[in-house]
Amino acid sequence: MTLLSIKKTNRFSINNLKKGMKIKMSKKMSSQYFARSIKLLNDTAPIHTNDKWAKRLGMKKKIFPGLAVVNVYSKMIGMYLPGKNAVMMSINFSFKKPVFENDKLVYICEITRVIKSIKVVLIKLSIFRNNDKIIDGDCKCKILNLND
Amino acid sequence: MKDIEKINKILKEVTNKKTKFNPKKNLFSQDLDSLDVTSLLLAIEEKFNIKFKGDAYDKLTTIVDILNYIKKNKK
Hints:
Chain A is α+β, with helices and mostly antiparallel strands. Chain A is 24% helix and 36% strand. A 6-stranded mixed β-sheet of chain A has the order 1-2-4-5-6-3, with helices on one face. The longest helix of chain A is centred in the N-terminal third of the chain and has 11 residues. The model of chain A has no long low-confidence stretch (mean pLDDT 94). By secondary structure, chain B is mainly α. Chain B has a single domain, classed as Orthogonal Bundle (Non-ribosomal Peptide Synthetase Peptidyl Carrier Protein, Chain A), CATH 1.10.1200. Chain B contains 4 helices and no strands. In chain B, helix 1 crosses helix 2. The mean pLDDT of chain B is 91. Classes of the chains: A alpha+beta, B mainly alpha. At the A-B interface, loops of A face helix 2 of B.
């Protein structure tokens, strides 16, 4: 398994991508990020804005919108792994645990299969909080070989 | 159902297009993009139980090319 640097934008060709290549990123779900996400998504559903309502729905307090949590993968996939030669074809997520304000999350992308003949890679996506996996998913990307 | 009919059916499913595809013309010249062609090849692998090898994406540019590949590689 190879953990890659995310200091600069990558541009892997299909021949350079290998099963096991991996990137990791951390993000704190700050109250500012929470507020920005609600605004950007225009999602003021009470489960995201009202602790009492969230409790009625079985949560301990208001929860982060799921799409605001996973949107980090847009950057991770498009800039780092596979990087700028990639076009996303599909992405799926399972939300196992809710995410709350001030949670510190670790995002991981790992290549699980490289289909060279069709120039497609399959990627496993995992999000952890305190070493517990709270979201998992997968993604399929087309890899085009482009020169600058 | 003949293989060509199966491929046309898959193409309609993956592209959501109702137009008739010309089997001899390059797929990219028939208003398909790289995601359509890739989805087509992935669906063909599954439905025909074959695995594309080599530079399939670059070499199989028409429906006829794909049909010939299937014919040669079908188990």
